[in-house]
């Protein structure tokens, strides 16, 4: 009896020519394909003559449906299935992870078929070089929650942060980044329409990026933003608690909770979170 297999298959993010022969071959040979939108995936498969049955698997049903799909895979004649997203690599800010997790639990072999990914394409196009990269997916909408994420980036600098943003929120998010990192050297690359006719990667300082975006009459296309965050020289050397407490004030002003701000800065400067908090209270009073 053949070993059960679940394939993770990347699909094109703009150009059909990016769809690999291996991906096409696998999707043609599985018992069924789990996908975000059956109508969207049907159109893609039709272009390549692929006729495998489809099962919907999206953010609203993946928790409940994953076990059903596992049972369907295990009881199918071919003992294999695939998961795809509308575009790019599944499970990267897209549905699929619950299905993969359930497959691991049931001892099903997982095979990942590499292909298009807007995140890795944008990262490569940025030209930034740092010892670590942090992927934040889609940021929360509120300024307060965004500042919490920015603090995480800053706490592990030097690093590259990568995230997605919609055209409707891109300007507000960039302004929040500018305000938060006003004392930190950063460079950004805004990538959009990757693999399409009007693909572009805009590189520069936060002011240069904002100026370029704000002069557009219409902002279209989902953005992938890479942020290059340089280390603050000597920032981790001995720094008085009073100065750190003023940094807490700034983080709180930008929407972060007091205790979380103290914790982040305590880790950054290798000092006591409780001591920083007590000094903060004295400054506030």
TrEMBL record:
Gene Ontology MF annotations: rRNA (cytosine-2'-O-)-methyltransferase activity
InterPro entries in the record: 4pyrrol_Mease, 4pyrrol_Methylase_sf, 4pyrrole_Mease_sub1, 4pyrrole_Mease_sub2, rRNA_ssu_MeTfrase_I, SAM_MeTrfase_RsmI_CS
Cross-referenced Pfam families: TP_methylase
Enzyme class: transferase
SUPFAM superfamilies: Tetrapyrrole methylase (SSF53790)
Positions of the Tetrapyrrole methylase domain: 6-209
Superkingdom: Bacteria
Record function comment: Catalyzes the 2'-O-methylation of the ribose of cytidine 1402 (C1402) in 16S rRNA.
Name listed for the protein in its UniProt record: Ribosomal RNA small subunit methyltransferase I
Organism name: Fluviispira sanaruensis
Gene coding for it: rsmI
